[in-house]
Amino acid sequence: MSLNDGTLIGGRYRLETKVGSGGMSTVHRALDEKLNRPVAVKLMHRTSAADADQLERFRREARAVANLSHPHLVGVIDAGEDDGRPFIVFEYVAGETLKARIVRNGRLELAEAVAYAIEIARGLSVAHQNGIVHRDVKPQNVLIDEDGRAKLTDFGIARSLDEDGLTADGRVLGTTDYVSPEQALGQPTGPQSDIYALGVVLFEMLTGQVPFKAESPVGVAMCHVRDPMPDLRSLRPDASATLAAIVDRCTAKEPADRYPDCTSLVADLEQALALEASRAGEATGEATSVLSTLPAASKERLPRRVWSPRRRYLIAFLAAIAALGVIAFVATSIQRGTGVRGTTPVGLQQVPLSANAAIPYDPFGDGEEHGAESARVLDGDRSTSWESETYYSGLQKPGVGLMIDAAPSVKARAVGLHTSTPGFTISVWGANGAQPEGKVSGAGPAGGTPAAGPPAGWTSLSGEYKATTRTLIKLKSPPQAYRWYLLWINSLAPGERTVSLSEVTLLR
After folding, report:
1. Beta-carbon neighbour count of residue 320 at 10 Å?
2. d(Cα 416, Cα 503) in Å, to the nearest integer?
3. Where is average pLDDT lowest: 64-73, 419-428, 454-463?
4. Measured CA distances, 457 to 411, 432, 433, 443, 491 (Å)
5. What is the pLDDT of residue 414?
6. Could you tell me which residues are beta bridge partners of residue 387?
7. Any bridge partners for residue 143, and if so which?
8. What is the reported pLDDT for 342?
9. Are the C-beta atoms of 311 and 318 separated by less than 8 Å?
10. Rounded-to-integer distance, Cα 312 and Cα 317, Å
11. For the chain, what is the largest distance between any 2 Cα atoms, rounded to a whole number of angstroms?
12. Which distant-in-sequence residues (6+ apart) come within 8 Å of 319 by Cβ?
């Protein structure tokens, strides 16, 4: 049977026009003659249907998505076979793909991009709760309906390679622009693989471009494995540090470093949406609709005027509310990896920091000081901490510290810190140039360096402070611009064997 406009499938669905094609199947707009409504029919190619493995994959897709029901997932209406060719019938979504919208408009408005990410993540959450991993999340597979809502479609990743894909041992790994490192390496995938891909989609919505380019799809896939993600805020300076931190966490190379599930991702995205809408002073398009769905705990912190249909009459008043109410929300809410959280002293502004901006510094020891934990001082969660190594008889060296990378540079006026081990002494130092070496060559304990501070190359920015549970260290005035700020610990608190820092803020 050749497929032409007018072909009847399953005795019910009259094909009208082809709307898409992949390596294993073709999608047609069709008319459901029984109910007189438009539908989308995904019909497997005859050559693919002759392959037992691909035939089973197609049938598996139909079974997998048949029981999924969510406003942000394209719904399945029917499935069957016609003349030996399997087909799946989906609801027809009039509109365009998210990819087409990005290509047409370039980067999206901040709130709009976050709103779409929330909708996609909500749909994925339902799929994951039903044991289904999409494995091909990309803007081409997100449909924007006529009401502006995002709907995730195409759960058929277990299919043949198409022009955008990558295979390994016969397995399709997803479009390489969005492929997770573990998929690119042919390793097992899980919900965190979808979270990675969604992080890349969010990056593309915010910047108008995918993060990696290479001469071949395999080259792009290897970039996802090896190369760090481009810095979002370098490409989109008006994005908040909160939003940049969400992208960073979604696209961590190790699955265990990403969000544990879409529920926790949605929670952070909802806070980011409230923040971006408040900063803009208004919300438009789908951002307005999504704002109205925020849980009460988030919405009550956001002035109703941001998402109310009457907001256009009250924008001036909103600015005042945002300054008083929403800024308080930003100051007290958890914003992981941003360096912007906690209360801010009057007259000071917190400096946004990347999630990996905190680096242990142990020049007179072994060069190691629990580096894997250092990001905890910037995760906004005071229940997590970076701890120094254990010293049973005091430091017995000039000091140990934690560097903060404020690239490219900033004129900081103070440093705030929280600790559960008060009583240690600490001072702040500054430097520019390349990252200071973590270990002085040939230096043993004390290393011949005066106990007053770190090795040569650092400039003293404060006197010595005895740390309290919450300490504000004021820096010398007038401020100078430095990239590196060093929290230099001179001595431990009496009776303590470690120093614990739960939160660090750089203030200007």
Report:
1. 10
2. 8
3. 64-73
4. 18, 9, 10, 16, 21
5. 92
6. 500
7. 97, 151
8. 42
9. yes
10. 10
11. 89
12. 281
Question: CA-CA distance, 42 to 83, in Å (whole number)?
Answer: 15
pLDDT value, residue 49:
65
Residue 302, both tokens: 């956001």
Position 303 confidence tier, pLDDT thresholds 50, 70, 90: low
List the beta strands (DSSP E) in 334-480: 358-361, 386-387, 400-410, 414-419, 425-431, 459-460, 465-466, 470-474
Q: From the candidates 136, 154, 194, 362, give the one annotated as an active-site residue.
A: 136
The answer to whether the CB of 499 falls within 8 A of the CB of 470 is no
Contacts of residue 329, defined as CB under 8 A and 6 or more positions apart, other chains included, come to 274, 275, 278, 301, 302
Domains and CATH numbers, the chain: 8-91 (3.30.200.20), 95-267 (1.10.510.10), 358-507 (2.60.120.260)
Bridge partners (DSSP) listed for residue 470: 418
Q: Which H or E element spans position 128?
A: helix 110-129
3-class secondary-structure state, position 340: coil
- 199-216: per-residue pLDDT in tens? 999 999 999 999 999 988
What's the pLDDT score for residue 114?
Answer: 95
Rounded-to-10 torsion of CA 116, 120, 122, 125: -160
For 18, 31, 114, 163, the CA distances from 21, given in Å and listed in that order, are 8, 19, 29, 11
Can you read off the two tokens belonging to residue 24? 């294993």
pLDDT digits (tens, 9 = 90+) for 34-88: 989 999 998 887 777 667 777 777 777 677 677 778 889 988 888 888 887 888 8
Whether residue 136 lies in the annotated active site: yes
**CB-CB neighbours of 297 under 10 Å:** 11
Token output for 23: 């390596």
